[in-house]
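Quick question: what would this complex look like in 3D?
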Amino acid sequence: MRQRAAVVEVRALRKTFGAVQAVKDISFEIRAGEIFGVLGPNGSGKTTMLRMLCGLLLPTSGSATVASIDVAARPDQVKARIGYMSQRFGLYADLTTEENLRFYGGLYGLDHDLAERLAWARERMRLEDVMDRLVAPLSGGQKQRVALACATLHRPPVVFLDEPTAGVDPGARRLFWHIIRSLAADGTTTIVTTHYMDEAERFDRLAFLSRGHLTAVGTPAEVRAAFGQGLTLEDIFVQLQEQNG
Amino acid sequence: MNPARLRSIFVKEFIQMRRDRGTLSLLLGVPVMQLLLFGFAIRQDVRNLPTVVFDASRSQQSRTLVQQFEATDNFRVRGAVPSYDAAIAAINAGRARAAIVIPEDYARDLKRGRPTQVQVLVDATDPTASQSAIGAAMLVGQRANVERITASLGRDPGAPPLDIRVRPLYNPALQSVLFIVPGIIGMILSNILIVITAMAVVREREHGTLEQLIVTPLTRSEIMLGKIAPYVLVGLVQISAVLLVGHFAFQVPIRGSLLLIYLTALLFIVANLGLGLFISTLARNQAQAMQVSFFFLLPNVLLSGFMFPREAMPEAARWIGLALPLTYFLQVIRGIVLKGVDLVELWPQTVALVGFALLFFTFATLRFNKQLE
């Protein structure tokens, strides 16, 4: 994996809001096809960092490139090359699955290949039974897969998932990770923020954020080793949270 | 501006509009319903006031007088009462809104050429309703006087020395529906559009879809235009519905240019959508958006001149009215529809509308953009 090209490069990234330093000189790289976890308690700077990488927030200093686009210089181009799935899914409940997909497909400029991509989403995201149904009554797991389909329909090289598995039952969660794994196999880079520590073991690599600092980055095994023998990722998370509080 | 992206939002917005039965009936049903209500039920020219008669004279003359009252259409005699107190009681109980009291000596005094008094009691708790009854009662008296004087002269006095003739322009029959129909266009456009836009934007924020839209390649102005343009269309459909029903069901003339009606309406629509967008930035949820909208809607109904003449308002209320786009639009639309005037006469109001549109929209855009940060 080490030899693959970096898709996300973060160099001394910093963001300050007035006197508050939300993100303090963070640097790391994410390689193509990686499933990369960003972990940290609330207020650790996770969301701020994510927003900078999505082109929503300009960094105060430092730089970040996503899919070889400088997020500070060309935030609008970044938006076209990433997919973003929020905790709240961002679906229109009064539209059907297919209408949601067509809507987001249209926003990302899909046109002649829309039909092909709809077929892809239907099969890959297991949406066979829900394409013509309104989103409102779907289960949490189904909504989650519809949202993922909306975020990946335009073949983005990088996908951001913000707290993706909140409120989803274990069976649906397993299916979801299975799909993410298959996207990664196709070369999609996935960046996930979460505070479900039992999911952290699924990441290829992960970064721990605490009070705006990057406290550890590496494979789950490397991170555990860095914090001391016998600690689980959950122990580490709780430790960081206590330091924060 | 990317046309394909805008089309996607429009399509989505119309699908949502179609699915939301409540809002759809609000958008299309309310304008027509208001028009029918105002046209058929609510008449400011009050007729057929239920009336009781206390006729102590019981004479041919007194019966003629009562008939003359009835002939005005303002009074509908419901029955006789045996005393003055009974007449008062009937009005107090709400069985009658007016009473005609004719004294015992009425016929005798008339014969002898002595002055006599007839009393008309009018329930003036509702000033508008009582006003026309009072006017009509005076007229009955004057007419009777002229007839008697003519008769006593024994000859035709010829033309009266002074003859004041009032010619009501533009609305010769003084029908309030003619006045109200153009007003309804203004009311509907402002009230419904303000609420609907505010709700539509707040709903996106509440459901987290606005958050999703800003990470797509949509630009801020595309989001705004995409949310708002469909409602411009809705507004134009509403005007057309009101104009059609008004014209064919209530014979409202459309004397001025239709093109001018739509152009000035467009300005007014943009101003209101700007206000709706602004309200959406103040409200955190749909219930709040509704409440904040009503804060703006009430002055529209009361102070714009839609129902109550601005000339009769205290100065402070008139000033507030000047800050409402509806005040200007009503003058414009009534001018075009009823008087057939064009932009030459209406330019000050039109300039005011342009000003409001620019002001509201700029302000709303700035706030909206800041909120998306």
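Answer marked as accepted. The CA atoms of residues 45 and 175 of chain B lie 8 Å apart.
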